[in-house]
Amino acid sequence: MLDESHRQRAMRPEVRISREALQVVQPINRRIGEWQARAAHLAALGQRAALTGCVYPHLRDDAETLKAAVGEEVQALAQVAQELPPAVAHSNRIEDTQRALAGIAACIERTLALFEEGGASCRRAGAPPGRFPSPAIKG
After folding, report:
1. What CA–CA distance (Å, rounded) separates 78 from 90?
2. Rounded Cα–Cα distance for residues 43 and 113 (Å)
3. Can you tell me the distance from the alpha carbon of 84 to that of 17, in angstroms, rounded to the nearest whole number?
4. Most buried of 70, 71, 79, 137 (most Cβ within 10 A)?
């Protein structure tokens, strides 16, 4: 008689592929949320800079730093994907992570354009670049 308590079901191929892909993207996905939040925050500040006509160098530097970090991750993931079996490299998990990174990069590019637009307006007005004034606290 067979002891069925120790019998293990064979893993379906799609489950194996998904797990392999998850091992690749999980460290990246942990950082994506933080990068998306930072990119959105910088985008809001970029819109404000474009509206007020002044650019803030420390924010542009933050955006450039984020752009470099995301770009490095895009390149690293592409390189790793080339070494993976095709089924894993083209899995939804890998492709979703690539799309998320591309979305962050696009947001940063738009933000840098807004900072450029704000800087041009600020230079035309003859105002020096600076920091946003602290909002008035209403009590």
Report:
1. 11
2. 10
3. 10
4. 70
Region class of 55: left (phi > 0), else alpha (psi between -120 and 50), else beta:
beta
Smallest CA-to-CA distance from 27 within 79, 73, 96, 66 is with 73
Contacts of 16 (CB under 8 A, 6+ apart): none
Per-residue model confidence as pLDDT tens digits over 12-61: 777 788 888 999 999 999 999 999 999 999 999 999 888 888 777 888 99
Instruction: For 73, list phi and psi in degrees, rounded to 5.
Output: -70, -40
Q: Record the tokens describing residue 77, joined without a space.
A: 């993931």
Q: What is the pLDDT of residues 51-104, one digit of tens each?
A: 888 777 888 999 999 999 999 999 999 999 999 999 999 999 999 999 999 999
Place of tokens 């474009």: 50
